[in-house]
Design brief:
The chain has 5 helices and 12 strands. The protein has about 250 residues and is α/β, with parallel strands linked by helices. Strands 4-3-6-1-2-5 form a 6-stranded antiparallel β-sheet. It has a 6-stranded parallel β-sheet with strand order 10-9-8-7-11-12, sandwiched between helices. Helix 4 (about 200-210) packs parallel to helix 5 (about 225-235).
């Protein structure tokens, strides 16, 4: 018998590209908006897609708020206290870096085959819709209508309501925006005069109120899985085209 020495080699994983934190806005104790700048050049993506970010070897996927034409990637993040990544992100300061997978992913995209887009979001679930609307307006497109319901427990969690309200006023023929809070009686919501109730409890009411043509409409839902499941159960049996993007806790 011939003795053969077996040689083994260990392949080192290639280093992931890095993105630098260039801006951070703390919305509340558990919500923040960050802007990051990939160090290897512009990050290519379609409105509605997500990027995969990491720190200290832990990675998670995040829908992108910014539109493809913008220089920096804008991400809306909710802290999960016992999560794997977000506590590490909360320690970051401007100048720190995260890993970023080089390719965007996701099929939660604007359906160009229809012209009416009824969008439902809870808190950070608004991210892909902001990206879609920003890019649509940047491209000076016409012929599509967006109806966006954004819900949160508290008004200060809505975050993008000022931008969306402004855009709906500037483009009333293209954008209808309804922010809603689910705990209107609590002191934190004192002075709130907008819609009241969870997105899933008022979705059907506003769908009927806006009355888009069913054959030319897509219903989108992004955010809390419970909201999505309830809305889906309401609208799909009625024949509405439906697409979803669920945000799970870490």
């Amino acid at each position: 018998m011939t003795n053969v020495k077996l040689e083994t080699t260990t392949r080192k994983r290639p280093e992931l590209p890095l993105a630098e934190l260039v801006h951070r806005t703390d919305i509340s104790e558990d919500l923040m908006v960050i802007k990051i700048e990939p160090q290897n050049g512009r990050f290519e993506f379609k409105p509605g897609q997500y990027c995969t970010l990491g720190r200290e070897g832990v990675e998670r996927a995040y829908s992108i708020v910014s539109a493809p034409y913008e220089e920096e990637l804008e991400i809306f993040v909710e802290l999960v206290p016992d999560g794997g990544l977000t506590p590490k992100m909360w320690e970051m300061r401007v100048g720190d870096t995260m890993s970023i997978r080089p390719r965007a992913k996701g099929l939660f995209l604007l359906d160009e085959k229809v012209h009416h887009h009824f969008m439902l979001a809870t808190v950070t679930g608004v991210a892909p819709f902001v990206s879609m609307i920003r890019q649509y307006l940047h491209d000076s497109r016409q012929g599509h209508k967006f109806y966006l319901l954004l819900g949160a427990s508290y008004a200060d969690e809505l975050t993008y309501d000022e931008e969306l309200s402004r855009l709906s006023q500037q483009h009333p023929d293209s954008i209808r925006f309804v922010p809603t809070v689910s705990r209107p009686a609590e002191a934190r919501n004192s002075g709130w005069s907008g819609a009241k109730g969870r997105v899933n409890t008022i979705a059907e009411e506003y769908l009927n109120s806006f009355n888009p043509p069913q054959e030319d409409t897509r219903v989108y839902a992004c955010g809390h899985p419970g909201m999505i499941a309830e809305v889906k159960d309401q609208v799909v049996p009625q024949g509405w085209k439906f697409v979803e993007e669920r945000f799970w806790k870490e």
